[in-house]
Design a protein that fits this description.
Blueprint lengths: L2 H48 L4 E4 L1 E3 L2 H5 L6 H10 L9 E6 L18 E6 L2 E9 L2 E6 L2 E9 L3 E10 L6 E3 L2 E7 L12 E11 L2 E11 L3 E4 L2 E15 L4 E15 L11 E9 L4 E10 L1
Parallel strand pairs: 2-10
Antiparallel strand pairs: 1-8, 3-10, 4-5, 5-6, 7-8, 8-9, 11-12, 11-17, 12-14, 13-14, 14-15, 15-16, 16-17
Length: 299
């Protein structure tokens, strides 16, 4: 087998590895998501059986915060004020939830002034909120401190809420029925196949005969397959650059290649958010194979 034949087989193996990686990542992610959803649904069912007043709801799904704020049942001013108080950017908001309850009043009781009860407790829903007492010609009226605890579990498709309240009358937590609306903001997932245009610089190294040569040049890439938001595979690359070899030969070369894997080194919210490191083989007009390492940014 010739050296070029061996390199060609190696390039094919790398390409197949890239495709296998794409399929494996996509399938694995789908299985993991399904398993997590099933597990969370089981937790919600158990919670519902343990607590009579727990509220389990299906989440409304929207693609953006703007869509969520434009819903008919949303008080835009109130939610906008909440969003502006967050340290996170509005784009990072993922859930909008409203919890509403009414504590039912106790019925009115009317008695003659001269037959006031020794004691009367005022209740709102399950909570004792005030007390009236009369003794020795004196009447006293007192209210009790009120404490509320809201527990929430937010999932991708369903959410659960349990509101409990207590007063200083007995300091016992009582479950309170609630009405809940939860909106989950789910931006459209990145497409697996979508063509982009990127520019950058590439360093390459290879050999013609026994004379190793290296070069550097400007590159144009066409990322089109994106198994994850931070990884591209099988990206075509075109490079124009200068090349020099150890035997004194120097000049310019045009190279066509394939970045088997590219990874985004940038981070959202940082100064550098779109900087892709790609690695793969290429072949040049000078008749040489090389391994290329390049940095690109999308237009």
């Amino acid at each position: 087998m010739t050296a070029r034949g061996g390199i060609g087989i190696g390039v094919l193996a790398l390409a197949l590895a890239g495709v296998s990686y794409t399929v494996g990542v996509s399938a694995g992610r789908s299985r993991t998501t399904a398993e997590k959803d099933a597990e969370f649904e089981g937790v919600l069912e158990q919670l519902a059986s343990d607590h009579k007043e727990i509220e389990v709801t299906k989440n409304n799904q929207v693609a953006s915060l703007q869509a969520a704020l434009s819903a008919k049942d949303v008080e835009i001013g109130t939610l906008a004020a909440l969003v502006t108080k967050l340290k996170d950017r509005p784009a990072e908001v993922r859930y909008l939830t409203r919890v509403e309850t009414v504590l039912g009043a106790s019925p009115m009781v009317t008695v003659p002034v001269d037959v006031l009860p020794d004691e009367h407790l005022f209740v709102a829903g399950p909570l004792t909120v005030a007390r009236f007492a009369s003794q020795g010609g004196e009447a006293t009226f007192e209210t009790y401190d009120q404490r509320f605890v809201l527990d929430a579990a937010l999932g991708d498709t369903s959410s659960a809420f349990l509101l409990r309240g207590a007063t200083s009358f007995d300091d016992q937590l009582h479950e309170i029925p609630v009405e809940v609306t939860t909106t989950r903001i789910t931006p459209d997932p990145p497409k697996l196949l979508k063509v982009h245009l990127a520019l950058g610089a590439t360093v390459f190294g290879g050999a013609v005969g026994q004379a190793p040569r290296v070069g550097v040049g400007a590159s144009l890439t066409l990322p089109w397959m994106h198994p994850t938001p931070r990884v591209d595979v099988l990206t075509p690359r075109a490079t124009v650059g200068a090349v020099a070899s150890l035997d004194g030969v120097a000049g310019f070369t045009f190279r066509g290649g394939l970045d088997v894997v590219s990874y985004n080194l940038g981070r959202e919210g940082s100064i550098v958010s779109d900087l892709w490191l790609g690695v793969g083989p290429s072949y040049g007009t000078d008749g040489s194979w090389s391994v290329d390492v390049g940095l690109t940014t999308r237009l």
